[in-house]
Amino acid sequence: MSGLWKKLTSKLGRSNQAPHGPTVIPRDEHCVSRRLISDSALKVIHRLNQADHEAYLVGGGVRDLLLGGEPKDFDVATDATPEEVRALFRNSRIIGRRFRIVHVRFGREVIEVTTFRGNHDAPQTNSKAKAKHSARNESGMLLRDNVYGSMDEDALRRDLSINALYYSSRDFAVYDFVGGLDDLNNRLVRIIGDPETRYREDPVRMLRVVRFAAKLDFDIEANTEAPLSKLAPLLEDIAAARMFDEVLKLFMNGRALQTYALMQRYGLFAPLFPATQRLLDTQSPATTELIHQGLANTDARIQEGKPVTPAFLYAILLWPVVKQLHQELLDDGVPPIPALHQAAERCLHKQQQRVAIPKRFSLPMRDIWELQLRFEKQSGKRAAQLVENRYFRAGYDFLLLREQAGEVEGQLSQWWQAFYEAQPDTRQGMQQHAQDDSDRERRPRPRRRRRRPRKDT
Ligand code: ATP
Ligand code: MG
Question: Residue 125 pLDDT more than 90?
Answer without folding.
Answer: no
